[in-house]
Input
Amino acid sequence: MVVLLAASEDDVAFLRDCVLVEAAFPSGTRPPTDALADDHIVRYIEGWGRPGDLGLVAWSGHDPVGAAWIRLLAPDRPGYGFVDATTPELTVAVVEQHRGRGLGRALVAGILDLAATHGQPQVSLSVADAINPVAVGLYRSLGFAEVGRDEGGSLTMIAATVPAAPGPGSDSRAPGGHPGPRLGPVVDSIGTPAIDPGPLSVAGAPVLQSRPDVDPHRTGPVDTHPDPISDRPGAGPGPPVARAATVADGPALVRLREVMFVGDGMEGRLGWVAPFLSAWADGLVSGTWQATVVDDARGRPVASALSVRGAAPPAPGRERGRTAHIGSVATEPGWRRRGCARAVVTSLVEVLDADGVESTTLNATPDGVPLYASLGFTPSPAGAMRRPRPAGS
Output
């Protein structure tokens, strides 16, 4: 299984490998080590861990198989996709044998989520659209829009990090009238095979072909058969439909948890982010953690609910001691009052019921009590709301 974890100083060697590929000529005549003498290249990685550096590394077992990171660059030492000193620039790479599975898309979407969690409103990138039209389509599907071209003719693109609120009467379609692709619903892989784009280039740099093991700025496939929009918020008269969260949704759950913390005086205290990503992957594998999400038209979660299972001493109503607690019920502000919270909580308790969980608890705000009461939760003496497993389920 491939998991996404926060990049740390221990990952610098792998990130450096990704950057070295960016300096390779198609002919392979330039040794990769020469790239480290090129200031245009090393500025993406030197001194990793400084303020503003954020990254994700995809791991398959003990091996790093992909990475995406953002960095703030200065006007006197800009990157190829430089916009301004307050907009971080994105770099992404996927190891060859893991391409074509949606991992690149998961990494880019995850970095947008982490950037939002850390208060960054937008992210930029550079892509040679004449060589890589498929990559441009993928970026557009995640909300990136063209803002100009550099001296080498490559596109500079920018995306907002927070999913946009739907407009009045919106059918939640992605640009061009088509629904955005969605990550696959399975736990043990990320995405689904589709188109594998050709070699990509860095703006102003040669086409990248020489290294077979890492390809920077490769972003994986664009789904040529996206799922229907009927199950998306605002897409028609029906209510939103939740899906099971996958390991690739960890960064989105982080973003939504930070939304939940706003107003509690806990926002901005982000030491929990890296441990959460690790715990999410471990909990999903063990089956003790589960989550449900509602996606926007681009496939980015806008609402979530998470459950953690446990064991309690057997008691009346829980003869086998199988319990769960639901938390992280959060919805992006622009998507509230649309039934998203009801969708994710309903879907989650249905899963817990089906798996034989006998007692489920959650903590409710006053505004949330009517919703949870309608789903069978009642106040408990301990202050939380409790829902017994319905008879016969």
User: Anything to note?
Assistant: The CA atoms of residues 89 and 155 lie 13 Å apart. Helices lie at 12-22, 39-42, 103-117, 133-141, 250-261, 273-286, 340-354, 369-374.
